[in-house]
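Lay summary. Proteins are chains of building blocks that fold into shapes, and those shapes determine what they do. In this project we predict the shape from the chain. Here is one chain we studied, written as its sequence of building blocks.
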Amino acid sequence: MIKSMSVAMFAVLLTQTACGPKTEKNDDAMMDRDDRMESNMDEREEEKTVKVGGAEMYPSKNIIENASNSEDHTTLVAAVKAADLVGTLEGAGPFTVFAPTNKAFEKLPKGTVENLLLPENKKKLTNILTYHVVAGSLDSDQLEAMIEQGGGKAELTTVQGGKLWVSKKMGKIILTDEKGGTAQIDTKDVYQSNGVIHVIDAVAMHK
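And here is the predicted shape, written in a compact code that computers can read:
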């Protein structure tokens, strides 16, 4: 009986010895994970953000990641997905994106957006969206410097290949498209990891 008790006690000691280090390792792993999460949160808090569509836009995120969080850009994001441009705008860039709000799309003739989202109109949709994108990262300071150098107006070449013109009116930067339509930059300098977004109040249209 004493022998049986000794064996049992020895087994318990072995179990405790085996479990002890594993528990410490698990605790260390959990602490490391928590430290990393806290570090990421601290870095995120230190970022200078701009609120768009009810969400903070983080400079460490790319154009798609930020735009997808904006309640004011659900139509734009849906259009980008329909045109298969997500991969492009998640890329290194850099890009300057003039981003129309949902209300901007609502200004188009009734049924226009729904029609553009149809698979057969993918090429047309792509042309409209890339007409809002310029290669390079142009913030408001750079745009204003170009306007001044151009004597009150500067010309931009879009990824689509068309032209946009920027000017200033009442302290605001104005875009003029190839059809003579205008859009105002309402929120400027929304910096991204792969460029910059300027929120505009109308959809620009190429010829």
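What the prediction tells us: Residues 1-22 have pLDDT under 50 and may be disordered.
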